[in-house]
Amino acid sequence: MTTYKALMLGDVIGSAGMDYMVSVLPALIEALSADFVCLNAENASGGFGLSEADADRLLACGVDCLTSGNHIWEKKGISELLDKRQNILRPANYPSGAPGRGVWQTEKNGVLWTVLNLQGRESMRPIDSPFSCADQLLADLGITREAAMATTSLAGEAAAASATADADSVVVPAESSATSAANPTFVASGGPLPGPVLVDFHAESFEEKEALALYLAGRISVLAGTHTHIPTADERILPGGTGYLGDLGMCGPVDSVIGSDTASCLRRCVSQMPIKLEPAAGACALSGALFTIAASGHCTEIQRIRREQTVPAC
Ligand SMILES: [Fe+2]
What we know:
The chain is an alpha/beta fold. The protein has 9 helices and 13 strands. It binds fe (ii) ion. The site of fe (ii) ion (FE2) has 6 residues, from loops.
């Protein structure tokens, strides 16, 4: 059975994170046989924002698409960079008129890959709805709820599949057919997608992350969260064959507070003064997940990925 492997990596943090990623990414991509790589780069340059030079360094390592979030706007020249580079995304649900774009499609080795970047609104700035934005963008790509719910041979195969972690097919709950007709937010059995559809949902709230994943279930291959910098162990395959992971974590300094320098973060937390945070230095770890996607576009397996930098002993 033909499958594709999508490697999605959490927010890369500052120069330490950048240097580590550049040093390990090519070998990691090869070792995992990843067909497509997405990385969130909103914190790549000095901890806040993304410069063109850092974007080029990451893309030269084999990353196909850079996603982002609320901090993407913080470097001078980002508007021009987003406008000219289609594979550097900002969240799609910023109000109309924002520079750049939040969705990208590309054909790679004969496979049509789609990446959609969205941002949450709970405990974040109240930008446009990620739900209605995703509805519109997916419809523009020909992926509608109705199409996703279409009965296909895949549905029958999936319903009969076993529930092992390395199963070839997606497992669909037995009651899901009836449920899907009554409740349009619950898709029973996904019809084929035009290719893998990856969503980076940059959000604080896990309620919002799970809600959007279930809302889009069957219409996308994967929804992976970013932004908290904390990797979660909540991976699961949703009805309709959508892989979900609440947060990919971060690619940055381990001795830190979610990537920031510990001393300045402690001063800020204890004093409640608006002390500027700096990215930490030191040994790094990378965090993300490898999603196996069937030719139908549905996720069949999720493997969390973590690698730590080894520092030579003094
Ligand atoms: Fe963020």
